[in-house]
Amino acid sequence: MRPAAYFRTARSKLPNVICVLPGSSDKVIIVGAHFDRVSEGDGVVDNW
Question: Whole-prediction pTM value?
Answer without folding.
Answer: 0.40
